[in-house]
Amino acid sequence: MKKRKKWLAMGLAVTMTFGLSGCGKSNAVSGEGSAAAKTDTQVKTLSVLMYTDWYKAGWQALEQYINDNSTELGFRLEISKIQGGSQGDQVLQTKFATNDLPDIIQVYKPQWVESYANGLDKLVDLTGLECVSEYDKKALDGTFRYNGKLYAVPIDSVVLSGVFYNKKVFEKAGAEIPQTWDEFLAVCEKIKEKGVTPVYYSGKDAWSVQPPTISGLLNDAAEKGTDTFGLMEQINTNKLKYGDCTNFIDSIQRTKDLIDLGYVNETYLSDTVDNAHQALADGTCAMYINGTWCADNINKKFPDKIDDIGAFALPTPEGDNYINMFTPYSLALTTNCKDTELGKKALNFIASQKAQQIYADAQPGVYLNKNVTSDIPKSTADLKKIMDSGKAMTDWEEINKYSYGNLSEPLLNYYTGMLKDASEVAQALDAETERNAKAQGDTNWK
User: Fold this and answer.
1) Which domain holds residue 62?
2) 309-312 and 159-166 strand pairing
3) Residues 277, 301 contacting (CB under 8 angstroms)
4) Domain count, the chain
5) Has residue 9 got a pLDDT over 60?
6) What angle, rounded to 10 degrees, do the helices at 353-362 and 57-68 form?
7) Which of 202, 224, 312, 414 has an alpha carbon within 20 to 30 A of 238's alpha carbon?
8) Does the structure show a pLDDT above 90 at 420?
9) 317 and 186 share a domain?
10) Percent of the chain with pLDDT over 90
11) Distance of alpha carbon 329 from its chain centroid, rounded?
């Protein structure tokens, strides 16, 4: 992951799709993947920039609709793309530094723009958009609404993390959904006795070892009477360290325990996410701990198996079980847009129920717009019920300020014996946080 970002944007080379068109231009769209727009010299083109791997079916359908109805809407879009990964992040950082920005930009979160691109002042305050009434205030606060300003609107769906399990394997083993860690271990033992791998790890894709550990910090937040925003505010200001978060450290220890107890596939260091999805669908493993894109991928590759897959929250010893919620990417208006009101009009439409429904129909998922409905896999629906019950928190990796994506490295070092104790994984994050904070001159670190 760069989170979800850390999880999804992995090791891609940088390429640019050129031809960004500034606000106020009236030429037809010519960028790769652009829909055929109506020719109307009175319709202005808004330039949009995003990562290539974010331009999926939802965006394609929405872009098509907007450009086919540009005369009525009063704008069309010209979408250009850079490929993801750390090199792509550097491209964005350079664009913010040189003020070489499009009218509209899709980014991680305003916090990322502030901490890693020093460019929050280049985003327009969108406070007052009518579409905001279609979202719960809590869904926008702290991420899209930041420091009292609405810097962005959501685009794409929510990702929820949990334990995905094969119902048929559970049934044959006589296992029920566990609520506590002891019950989870008992389920693993029953499944192992049936000759099936209880839990699948896919360490070849290093980011994928993170999901089993990340919910521990949610319990640290709950224990302190706050949420991940409150907890990360303390960590981001050096009032609390990851090494002080005992639930987090214990969750890391438990993931190693599963390896030591023989409940994890022996080849986990060389196995991939695709291997995990195949094994879960086939029933050669019982459980895989990951995000709801797991269900999406199984639905795509093994549609006849998707109804066999359910999901639940990874249990803790006490049974106070939370799931991580990775909020959607952000769509922001930059100060480079010469027609700010038109830019706001475009974002107001894109975040509205009508546009979001077009996006969701092409790319089913869990959407923050309250009026959007979507046909989602049963396992995703299982996790959505947990989210709707109030047992989900925004993923802390999205809102940390200085430690951004290195959890997988110390985790794998711990699993393979290079680190001897789970606390050393947390200490590695603390070291990264201190290093990055000092590099940015944060006086909370001396």
Assistant:
1) 3-158+328-376
2) antiparallel
3) yes
4) 2
5) no
6) 130
7) 414
8) yes
9) yes
10) 78
11) 8
pLDDT score at 24: 41
Q: d(Cα 212, Cα 227) in Å, to the nearest integer?
A: 19
With beta carbons less than 8 A apart as the criterion, state whether 83 and 12 touch: yes
- Rounded to an integer, the average pLDDT of 44-49 is 97
Measured between alpha carbons, how far is 137 from 133 in angstroms, rounded to an integer? 8
Task: Name the amino acid, one letter, at 70.
Answer: S
| pLDDT band of 38, cuts 50, 70, 90 | very low
- 119 within some domain: yes
Whether 203 and 228 share a structural domain: yes
Q: Are 21 and 87 in the same domain?
A: yes
Predicted local distance difference test score (pLDDT) of residue 406: 73
DSSP-derived secondary structure for 107-134: ES-HHHHHHHH--GGGB---TT-GGGGG
CB 210 within 8 A of CB 411: yes
Is residue 252 domain-shared with residue 315, that is, in the same domain?
Answer: yes
Exposure b/e, 289-319, CB count within 10 A at least 16 = b: bbbbbbbbbbbeebeebbebbbbbbbbbeee
Alpha-carbon distance 245 to 265, whole Å? 29
Q: Are 316 and 203 in contact (CB under 8 A)?
A: no
| Predicted local distance difference test score (pLDDT) of residue 138 | 85
Residues 318, 342, single domain; the answer is: no
Please give the structure tokens belonging to residue 336: 């480079």
Same domain, residue pair 315 and 349:
no
The C-alpha atoms of residue 378 and residue 352 are separated, in whole angstroms, by: 26
Cβ–Cβ < 8 Å for 383, 162: yes
**Mean pLDDT score across all residues of the chain:** 89
91 in a structural domain = yes
Helices and strands, number each (H, E), in the chain:
20, 13
Extract the tokens encoding 184.
């989870």
| Gap between the Cα atoms of 378 and 165, Å rounded | 11
Task: Note whether residue 382 is domain-resident.
Answer: no
What the block records as the tokens of 113 is 């723009």
Average of per-residue pLDDT across 234-242 = 95
Q: How many CB atoms lie within 10 A of CB 240?
A: 17
Two structure tokens written together for 104: 């509209």
Q: Note the pTM of the prediction, 2 decimals.
A: 0.83
| One-letter amino acid for residue 377 of the chain | P
Provide the pLDDT for residue 85: 74
Q: Does residue 140 form part of some domain?
A: yes
Assign residue 167 the CATH number of its domain: 3.40.190.10
